[in-house]
Amino acid sequence: MKAFRTLYLKELRSLLPFLLLIVVLTSVSLLDVALTKFPDQQTLATLFGHNFGDDGSIIILFFLTFALTQGLLMRERSENTLEFLDSLPSSRSLIFICKCAAGLSLLMIFPLGENALAFILHAISRHSSAPDLHLVFFAKSLLFDIWMTLVFFGIGLTFSFLGRFSLLALIFVGLWYGTFKEMQLPWIESIDPFANVYDNMLGNSLLLPWRALISQMAISILLTLLSWWGFTKLGTSSNRFTLWKNRLVLTLLALGVGIATVSWVVIKRRNIAATPHSFLPDAYVPDFPSWQTAQTTTESFTFIYPSNQLQQAGKLISTAESVHKQVTSFFKVAPNRSLVIDLTSQSPRHAGTAYWKRVRMNLSANSSITELEAILGHELTHIYISQLSNNKINERFNSTRFFHEGLASYLEYRLFRESSDLPKIRKLAAIAKVRNRIRFEQLVDSTKLSQTHAIELIYPFGELFIAAVVSHYGDSAPEKLIRAFAREGAPAKLNAMTLWEDTFQSCEYNLEEVIAVFYELLANEIKLHQTFINNLPSIRAEVVRQGILVGVKLSSSSGSAITELKTEQLICRFRSDKDTPENQYLSGHTDDNNTSWVLSSYFSGKTFWYQVGFQLPGLSAPVMSPWKRSSIPKQGSEN
Amino acid sequence: MILAILYKELRQHWWAFLLIVLICSLGFFGQFTSSTLSEGHGSHFTLLTKFGIFIALASLVLVNRLVASEYHSQTQLFLESLPLPRGRMILIKYLLGLTVITLLAASAFTVTLLLGLRTEVIDSNFIAYLLLRFGAFCYFTYCFFFLYGFLGRYRIAFFIAIVFTSLLFPKMTDWELTDLPPIELIGATFAYEREHFPLKPFAVTISLAFIFSLAGLALATLREGSVAGLLGEQMSHREKVSIAGLIIALIFTAYFIDERNPKEPYQMHNASCVGSLAQGIVVSVAPPSAEGQILANKIHEDLTALSLYLQIEKLPPVFVIRRNDLDPETHEAGSLKNKEGIIMRTNFAHSEWDFNQFNESLIARVLGAYSNDRIRKEDRFWVLDGFTLFWSRRNEVPQSSPPKALDRSPDLLLRALYGTSERPPLTPSSMRRWFSQQDELGHEITAGIACSLLRVLESAVGEKKCQAFLRSILAVKNPSRASTSLRDLLAPPEKLFLQHTGMQLADFLSLWQQELQRLRPAYQEQLNTLPQISGELEFVKLSLNSSQANYSLVDSVDKSPNLKKRLYYATLPPFANYVPEHLLIPVPLDFTANSHSGILPDDFPRGTRLLFTFSLYSKALKCRIISGWQRKEAH
User: Fold this and answer.
1) What's the CA angle centered on B618, arms B424 and B448, to 5 degrees?
2) Tens digits of per-residue pLDDT, B602-617?
3) pLDDT band at residue B281, thresholds of 50, 70 and 90?
4) Are the Cβ atoms of A40 and B377 closer than 8 angstroms?
5) What are the start-end ranges of the H helices in A368-453?
């Protein structure tokens, strides 16, 4: 005990710089509140409104832990004090325990401080209609932070043995984790220590994702044990790690393990994709085609296309210049003569995508030349928006996405589709306004919009906004606004409404007037299609469970079966948390009872999100309801 | 000798080189897989952009091995004892590291080129552009870290400074990381641009790389290598503390300067404008029109009078936008996060639009913004609640003499009487719990109660004292910091009330109750005809995890058709108790029936918290009567 205390205090003294760092970091939060806010008006609702738990504190905790653990064990070797330690009447294991205890003691100050501050602020900010202290929530939050500190500690200890390679290795591991996430393997999120646990809120209750936490802790314990073993072997005469043969063997072994892991993952992923009802749409299966490609150059374009689709490609190639001319005429710019049109895309999710001077289109998915021209026109608009703004508009894509897609859709429908097609997109805006009460302010933050609603709404609403701009300020207004992004002295740190206010003001336009016109146009569309909207089915969803599957049963709002829609018209998609990227949404498999199923193992937390909708002829996209979060029913609670 | 040194370096670091190459190769493969799966790439050459981070880290590790560890362990002294110029020795290390990086970069480039053969338009021009841009970036990165390696014990501090600068600088200025020439070289246009070569960023990058290389070589050879040797030594305790303190001070200063920057006023073009910033009050109404000008003048006049009454020098500029799609009684508030000003959207051209009603909302927002929302703290909120009506209805002609009697606005008096019927009398404690009052009665009724309080106060203590009290709450400056909270803790509204009016709040409340009781009999008949409204909302399970919401309305007393019977509901975010007005979903109820039931069209997953109330419009009160805001959770 005495030896433990002595060693523990010795380690604490050597970690004093970290104590200072931790105190400083904790003080930043305190000073932030003290110097820039009213401490007695910071309820938990206010803190949550400012992204409580999503503000990077878990990242700070990780890097703090990582930095501390880097020197905790290996410093003894680099400073050649191992022999001194060995001369003490204490085992390596005791020294290891003391070091870990000292390190953890310091690290705990950060989560304790952060949670204590949040609790005190909430306690003094409560008011009569919200008097609850939410002790259980704070206890869980603190438990989670302490738990994660322990998880990060084990990871950091192991990486510390890599010395200067630790940072490289960390990024490497992170990259591969991201790759596995893209593959959408079940269970993979269970080992993500950065998953936003505060997304697992059910009402005011925080549901800790125990399965994921235990998985992570198990890995951390294993890594800690490995570190303990490594520390006990460090610097001993039996350590022949410095021998080149052993280093080579170790490197090849690590490489072998890495390749084996990756291969297993890839094979497993393909097996899942090949399994019926694997609940993965084809979009997520990477395909490496074997057909050859050919190229054709026109005045403005170089086309790349599958050589076995020459006829289909030929149709588009022959009319592409005309499409190009119409787009450039609208923008009143000279046509760019070095654009690449890549027709080899196989993405069923995107008919076309635009990059800087390059368009990718899925030739196979669209057979009609009108459709191909419309898509090309849409994508070329994106290219010219980027060009005219010198790419500045893309640097704030979160705030400008609705404008990008809106203008592209506007020109698509105005120049390349029949006027009778316009209601297909406008009706969607009208429906979303009536049913979901979408406001303009939501469009200028596409991340927040995608968290609550279908991101596809930026197309119809964006198109209507551009129509409002053009109606109020003329055809040249969109081009003027785009160029305003690239003007000298344009402020770089604006976003959302302030960005658009600034942009409009620089053109001597009035954003609020355009918004007023936008709402007027929207009101007109609602009036025009009122009957259609009133007759739309209302879908209700029930969350159900069956074995390893979680499902959403769709019925009409009266509770009876849906008669107006066929099963194939119903849509249900899932995601694990509100920040899941769109390309990682899961499509459910819908059975004959209109229940859409997905594997529960895709969700590492205790909650999941679902969104229901339906596709109707006469609409350019499905009608989707807002995203909803539900707890995952327990296995055994089958309906 | 050169070969010998080379052989020595290879023998010493082959393992590190191999590991770097392996990690980078696997990293490249991982990026390729991720890119293919995410469908996020328009060109295979974007892989090189992403691979840049591996080049940077590989450079960092390489230089650490080749340079930093040599000087840290002072084995360079051995090398300097060899018959080889110091500069040549450093040059060998420099070139060796550069060779490894070049091999890595070249391999990545070649593989990417091969991958892109099918779907890229490849010509010599394009390849040259890509090669030059990527090559320049890699060279710059390596040279930067080469110099970095010689900073010795100041490496960490330098690294922290770089990291925080790159995080804070973009926040505080209009500069962005992507503006840096080396980053710009492999930026968004790298994989696609085949026409214009970014000559300026290229030249700057290469120049910087040369400068870093020369600086590194200079550091290594300066004063016969003693400078580099000294830098490689351990930091003293004093140095550590000094540098840590300096970095922390810089971080704090930068952060808080940015946070406390005053907001610039918002500007609106093409609007009817009255006033100026110099005068302290600016009102703009858009779009410009004769009607808008009249409204702007009226608002400006009112705000000028308000600023005189409360002795406020400068009020936030006000912008009013006409919105023809809004109902006449709807007044939406806009949000200006980084600019100073108030935006209100309203349908002021509508025939049923009421200026007083609009002005209530406007005054609340103006004073809220002026006070940094301090006035919305619960213990003093009743003052704002009452003042919005007190001020906007101040010019109403008294119904009877003497002037300024409580009953000069019958509807407001009725609100006060309605809100205090069969309820415990108001006490200083319940005044501090104003949000609960609002929950039970609704904002419009509590505003009527608070307005009557202010009117009684004015008649009891005189205009000057009443004004002084109002100023002490509404017009005081409230900088956003803890000292304001402390100030208010030491001087709560009750204390200010006593200080400025000479009356204890409890005594005043008794006086006010007496005044209401005196007037109640005259209005009892009207009160008896006012409707009561009540209703219930229950969650009924559809499944274990989903529910539907069944509601039922019962109202009594009033058999005549009431206007605008509604159920208002909204989903609450975690821990929130309220939502902005525009998020409330109105469900129209049958106005001819006294009872009505139905099912909300939505389904509610378990855990959904719902805020709801039933309401109807009372012509006599000129406001809504509610059943009381309730919050329920679907289980």
Assistant:
1) 45
2) 889 988 999 999 998 8
3) confident
4) yes
5) 369-388, 392-395, 397-415, 422-436, 440-443, 446-452
User: Cα separation of A530 and A431, whole Å?
Assistant: 9
Q: Which residues in chain A land under pLDDT 70?
A: 49-55, 235-251, 254, 262, 264-290, 348, 557-563, 636-639
| Pairing between β-strand B532-541 and β-strand B546-556 as defined by DSSP bridges | antiparallel
A479 to chain B, closest Cα gap in Å:
19
User: In this complex, which of B14, B36, B192 lies closest to A356 when CB atoms are compared?
Assistant: B192
Reported ipTM exceeds the 0.90 cut: no
Which residues are registered as beta bridge partners of A511? none
How far apart CA A338 and CA A297 sit, in angstroms, is: 10
The beta-strand segments (E) located in B418-562 are 532-541, 546-556
> In chain A, what are the domain boundaries?
2-236, 282-388, 391-536, 537-631
Instruction: State the Cα–Cα distance between residues A15 and A18, nearest whole angstrom.
Output: 5
Residue in A closest to B174 by C-alpha:
A492
In a 10 Å sphere around its CB, with 0-12 CB exposed, 13-18 middle and 19+ buried, how is residue B249 labelled? exposed
Ramachandran assignment for A533, one of left (phi > 0), alpha (psi -120 to 50 degrees), beta (any other): alpha
- Tell me the percentage of chain B whose pLDDT exceeds 70: 83
Q: Got the DSSP string for B155-177? A: HHHHHHHHHHHHHHHHHHSS--G
Maximum Cα–Cα distance for chain A, whole Å?
A: 89
Minimum CA–CA partner of B243 in chain A: A17
Q: How many CB atoms are located within 10 Å of the residue B565 CB?
A: 24
> The tokens of A635 are what?
């296995």
- State the alpha helices, DSSP H only, in B39-173: 46-63, 69-72, 76-80, 86-115, 124-149, 155-172
Residues of A in contact with B19 (CB under 8 A): 165, 251
CA distance B588 to B571: 18
| Averaged confidence pLDDT in chain B | 85
Q: Which residues pair with B612 in a beta bridge?
A: B569, B630
Min Cα distance A54 → chain B (Å) is 14
Q: A411-439 as b/e, with b when 16 or more CB fall inside 10 Å?
A: bbbbbbbeeebbbbbbbbbbbbbbbbebe
Q: Per-residue confidence at B259, pLDDT binned at 50, 70, 90?
A: low
pLDDT at B340: 74
Q: Which positions in chain A touch B435 (Cβ < 8 Å)?
A: 127-130
B338: closest chain A residue by CA? A498
Task: Read off φ and ψ for residue B369, nearest 5 degrees.
Answer: -65, -40
Which residue segments constitute the domains of chain B, with CATH numbers given? 2-259 (no CATH), 272-527 (1.10.390), 532-633 (2.60.40.10)
Q: Which CATH class is domain A282-388?
A: mainly alpha
What local confidence, expressed as pLDDT, does residue A623 receive? Answer: 94
Length reported for chain B: 635
Write down the residue that tokens 């653990």 correspond to: A69
Q: Which of the two residues, B108 and A592, has the higher pLDDT score?
A: B108
Q: Per residue in B147-158, is it b (16+ CB within 10 Å) or e — as a string? A: bbbbbbbebebe
**Each residue of B112-137: pLDDT tens digit?**
999 888 888 888 999 999 999 999 99
Could you please state the CATH topology (level 3) that the domain comprising A537-631 is classified under: Immunoglobulin-like (2.60.40)
**Contacts A176 to B, Cβ<8 Å:** 26, 30
Nearest chain B Cα distance for residue A322, angstroms: 22
Give B467's pLDDT tier (boundaries 50, 70, 90): very high
> Which residues of chain B does A43 touch, with a Cβ-Cβ cutoff of 8 Å?
575
Integer angstrom CA distances of residue A267 from A180, A271, A584, B64: 12, 6, 19, 38
Question: What is the separation, in whole angstroms, between the first and last Cα of chain A?
Answer: 57
Task: Report the residue of A128, A134, A290, A552 to disrupt the B interface, i.e. the one with the largest count of B CBs within 10 Å.
Answer: A128
Residues A543, B194: C-beta atoms closer than 8 Å: no
